[in-house]
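ingest -> validate -> predict -> emit
validate: passed (alphabet ok, no gaps, 466 aa)
predict: started
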Amino acid sequence: MSQRKKVLVIGLDCVEPTLVFEQWRDELPHFKRVMDGGVWGRLESCTPAITVPAWSSMMSSRDPGVLGFYGFRNRGDYSYEKQTLANANSVKVDRVWDILSRAGKKVITIGVPQTYPPKPVNGIQVGCFLSPSTTNPERPYTYPASAMQEIASLVGEYLVDVPNFRTNDKDFLLRQIYTMTEKRFKLVKRWIAEKDWDFFMFVEMGTDRIHHGLWKYHDPGHPRHEAHPVYSQSIHDYYLYLDNEIGQILELVDDDTTVFIVSDHGAKKMDGGICVNEWLMCEGYLTLKNKPEQRTSIDTCGIDWSRTKVWGDGGYYARIFLNVEGREPQGIVNPGEVEALRDELKTKLEAIVDPHGVNIGTKVFKPQEIYQQCNGFPPDLIVYFGDLFWRSVGTVGYDSIYTFENDTGPDDCNHAQYGMVIKRDPALNQGPGGRELSGLQLMDMAPTILQHLEVPIPMDMQGKPF
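emit:
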């Protein structure tokens, strides 16, 4: 009789593949052990390469356009005001654990982004960083709700995220990251050992938070690099700590368990910010009723819609919206001119230079060209300033299109387009050093997991098993 096949997915948000595959490979014996016995490679993220929508794209094998959300914040309609936050209720398609639950497989998920509010599964679902509380029984962050008490009795107050990771108090940040991660791994290890499961997946957010908080100390190429006796080693030491935790997990799984270690995107230095709405004003596309005296959100200073063709939104990437006649309430762009205007904006945005006159290498995407469908209310353009070495700053009141301070608090890094995946299949030993794969995409993960568990892959999944 064949043994019961299992899949364990260790998710590490924002883990940068060059650190694991190259820089620290020999210092991370447990990562290395999984690589040496399996396959590994860079994993191309979705566009945009951010936590929401990346993990849902990975686990549903659908691109963000099909999913109908293009970031954590999205337009709720074509009015100027309505914004929605993409939580679990925004995900209208099956993810891996939904398909496995229906197939009778036992599933456990812990902290996978966009699993709050938790949904019924054939097993347990513990909500993600979007969970507002882990102590309010009226709004349970687990399914079933009874799992809340079990977690509290094991780890005390469970942390789904670190409070305020954009802080100048780096000692506080590091303490919070370790506290959160220790509690998560304590729970994971207990449930791996004691619960009945076929599919177990968890995502640790500490890797993302430590990168955003401390990358300038880690990266000598960062424009604001600072050497520090503790902070310069902090990311390195945290990776070593994670490696040790992963080693303990590997001891708990049997030889019939396929293990994946995966990240949704990578990390890279942030050279600065491009003030997207200041740029649009300089170029004559956007007009405010009153120029603000101080830096302020564009929402609060009044846009003159009768003289505005285009406005933008900030974040790790920019979203550009056209004020289209018949679509927006006070639209002035003729629908027949939309394509020409998008092309004009793309050309101008890709020509943006840094303060020294050097082109920064901006990439501009039309959603209709990169997604299979465009559900919901997509931006008219998605912009990676400087190919993600620069972030998009949506606030206004600057005297320049450049800024070197983040408008939402201290932040050292931006996201990189490639995360990583390492896979160890006990049935296939790849020999010394493992085997590096190329051409892998985020959406390949879900069909690969289903194939391992011998569950049919839905025809409309966009990825392919590797």
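The mean pLDDT is 96.
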